[in-house]
Each structure stands twice: as C-alpha cells, then as structure tokens.
Design brief:
- Helix content is about 25%, strand content about 15%.
- The protein is of the alpha/beta class.
- It has three domains: about 375 residues, Glycosidases (TIM Barrel, Alpha-Beta Barrel); about 55 residues, Oligo-1,6-glucosidase, domain 2 (Alpha-Beta Complex); about 90 residues, Immunoglobulin-like (Sandwich), CATH 2.60.40.1180.
- An eight-stranded parallel barrel has the order 1-2-3-7-8-9-10-14. Strands 15-16-17-22-19-20 form a six-stranded antiparallel beta sheet.
- A hairpin with a 2-residue loop joins strand 16 and strand 17.
- Helix 9 runs antiparallel to helix 10 and helix 9 crosses helix 11.
- The relative contact order is 0.10.
Amino acid sequence: MRIRDTGDLWWKNAVVYCLDVETFMDWNDDGVGDFPGLLQRLDHLADLGVTCLWLMPFYPTADRDDGYDIVDFFAVDPRLGDAGDLVELIRTARDRGIRVIADLVVNHTSDRHPWFRSARRSKDSPYRDFYVWSATKPPDTSDQVVFPDQEDGIWTLDETSGEYYRHRFYRHQPDLNTANPQVRDAIAKVVGYWAEVGLSGFRVDAVPFFLADAAKGRGDDVERPHDYLKSLRAFLTRRSGDAILMGEVNLPYEQQRLFFGDDDGDGTSDGDELTMQFDFVGMQQLYLSLARQDAGAVAGALRSRPPIPRDAQWATFVRNHDELTLDKLSDDERAEVFAAFGPDPDMQLYGRGLRRRLPTMLGGDPRRVRMVYSLLFSLPGTPVLFYGEEIGMGENLAAEGRMAVRTPMQWTAERNGGFSRAAPSRLSGPVVEDGYGPEHVNVADQRRDPESLLSFVQMLVRRYRESPELGWATDVEILDQPHAAVLAHRSTWQDGSTVALHNLGPDAVEVPLHLPDCATDDGGAPVRLVDLLHDAHWFLDEKGRAVVPLAGYGYAWLRVVRDGARRLL
C-alpha cells in the first residue's frame, strides 16, 4: 500500500478524542455544556491534532445514567442544543480535518422510551416484542448484573403488565430484543439517519450484550449472532463507505478476535464486522506493569494480540469515560493495581475498577505521566484520549460513581474553570478541587507554556501522525534487552521503522539494542537511530548494535534512518 492510500482508511492513524457535550463548554450559562460551546472550543481540538471527535450520548434522555438511558434515538437533547447545532458542529469540524462519531447505544432504552411505554401497557402492543419478557419469575441472576452494587438481578417485575422484563444494566434500562427483525430494522434506521446527518461512524456500546440475543431468532430467522453484526456493518458501509463501527468488547483476545469478523473458527478474519475494537486487555496489563514497574505484563499483552485484518484496527487508551476496569486481571493482580493506584475503597468501583484519572494515580509525577502518554502513542493502534487528559485533569471523588472522572472541562483559572458562568450549584457536575482544580490545571495557562503537558501531548500527536508505521504496522516486535522495567518494541511499515523505549522504573538504565537487519558489515553507510522526541541520535555499529541511555521514567522514539532516507525527522 502506498502512503497516499492511507486516507481511505482514515481510522488507522487517527487521533480520537472522547467528550461529553454536557461537561465540555457551556455557552448559554445555564450550567450545562452545549453544542454552541463545543463549537467555540473546536479550535482547541484542532490545535491538539485531533482527527476524530467521539461524542458521548447527546440524545434526549431520562438522565439517570448520564445519557445512556435514551428516550429518543432521532433527536438532540434540548439542553445541549438542536439538530442544527449538531450539523454546524459536524460541518465545522470537517473543515478542520476532524470527523465526528457518536455513541450507538442499542443494547437497551430508557424505561421512559415510547417503545417501552407502549410495550408495558399491552401484550398486544406492536412494541411488546421489542423487549425481552418472562411470564414467570426467572431464577437467581445476581451473578449476571453489570453493576453489582446497584442491582441484585437482571429481571424486574413490571407491575403494569404483570411480567418480568430483562435489564442487564439498570432496571430503568430494559434490554432491546435484537432477535426481533423489527428491532434490527429500527436500529438500522437509527444508524442510517445519523450517517445521513453527517456522522462518520459510531462507538458501539456493550457489543457482546446486544449481540447475545441475535442468535435467538424464530424458525427460519435463526442465525449466528455475528451474522447480525456483519449485516449492520454492511448497511453502514452502503450508506457511508468510510464510516466506522468502533466497538466496546471487553473480552479476552481469543474471543475479541471474533468481533473483527472471524466467527467460523478458521483463525482468519474477513474484517466485515467491527472496524475497531478497544484493547481492554492491553490497557489492564499496562496498569499491572505500571504498578509493578516491570514491563513484562504489557509486553506479554502485545505478544499475545491476535492478528487483525488490514482494514481493522485496535483502539489504545489509558483512560476512558467509565470506571478503569481491571476485570481481566486475576484477583491478586487486581489487588496489586488497587494497592498502587487506588488503595482507598472510595477510589474503587464495583470491586473491579478505579474511578480515578491517570495523574492522580501516578502521584502527580510529571515524568511518569509523560512516559505513559508517550507509550500510549507509540503502541501499535489508534490512540484514544478522554477529554482533559491533554492537560492532566484529576477526578472529584465527591461525585457519585463513574461521574468522578466526568467533571467539567477546565479551560481557565476562573470560577468553574471557565466551563460556565452559572452558579456552581447549577453545574451539570462538580468541578475538580484542591491540587488538580482549575486554578492549578487549565487549558489557558498550558497553551502559553511550551513545557506544559498540553504542549507535550501536542508534540506526541504530531509525531504520531508523522509516523504511519505506528498506526499501520504489520510487524511489531518486542526487542530483547536486559532491563525488566523497560519496554522496547519496534514498529515497521513499508520503509518506516521506529523503535520505542519506555522505562517504567525510577532508575536510569542503558539499553543495549541489536537490530540485525541494520547491520552494515558489508561496508555500507552506518544506520542512525534518531530520537523523534528529543534532540539526540545514535549510530548503529556494523553489527546493528547501539546502547541508548534512558532516565528513570524515560522514553524515546527512535526512527531507523538508513543512508538515502527521505522521511522528514
């Protein structure tokens, strides 16, 4: 593939930025963020280098689960603006080279959705079979709940109809019955509508859950569950050829692979289901490595990643909008991470995750924070940032549950962090306080400081975008070297090759590297390793060897530069 072809698969080396409109920027000063406010802050995202904006749910909602309890799939929450504001955002973002995707939440609806209200009124309702019902009380399902401290089972008696309805999440979020062809048609209508409005794809919420029902068709309609995901992807591709489905699939790699399109067990994937998947396993192993200050766990995750189709991609991240889940770690491993980064029970959630942001977990050590973000952008895949990460925002543990990390964006040192001029009591969420409050952490101050975290992340974004081998690499090699705290990996694509070094420990080390393919014992010109993040370079000897020093929590991106190379450095 030629470099100019990468624009067709724009997601392969995109920079994704996730935000909640409600907490990003309030332009009418009612205490709630809105689309006009986001539009006014779009240049911040463009300056950062964002190429894909992921919007958390902006639809009308009962607002009992931060927008994930939807009452109308075809409208905009009036608190945030109207459809015209959204269209203006999409158009203006595209003008700045930013595509817009949004959450697709089709595992469930709010219990206030007109479909469910009709379904519970009568068993003869045309929407009755849009949901999953049981005439008899189901057995104990306490081991199946997603939020174990909130629900004691996944079935609730609907007193209106006298039957039980299923809800894997909260009881106010009844599950949609995706085995019903009419439900599938309705979901396709939602996808088609927003694609026509101008979205470039969707982040698909809770994929394994809504797919689980897809095999429960009737008679001739019975099919494998992944066939439904294939049909949804095919429909979106017909409507918008370069739109994506970025899926939330928190499963082990061997199961996750199936969601790229390999459901026949032959070990290969057609790439006709999800375009991208979040690397939950890699993220959790990264935190285990950080807790141990030993790179072994994250290196093991990279080695065990299954191959994926050329058109597919991993989405890498160190923080998302939910609890920082650690459910794929063993109990002992999870305890290690809790002890290192969230020892207080109030910092933990659901017994499986943390409700903290990265800087506070790392004790505010700027060396460690920068090392982790350098590692994120050097990992094979497409990096995803959660709003506020670029300036090192903290959390507010006084907020309930996952809302601790969904606090208002901090723009200035002014009241409410410049998010809104409304009274603090009217804000959509509490602002972070103490050492990570707006007076200490905000965009305005960091924009003027070339040594700030914001400036550093901007540099990482630029270097990542200039290094297609990081997103497109088909050959990622974990390099042998003697230091347990150091991760050394090499990404290669076409004529580009970069060696990334990251020291997860506090002690300075010297890392011996051996790149046999760069040997010049035949008399050729020596090969250089040029650090893309610092003003430094090293020559490989005739055997392809060099020793590179790394400070404690140090990092380097070393571009392999051969004689006659024409890539800009």
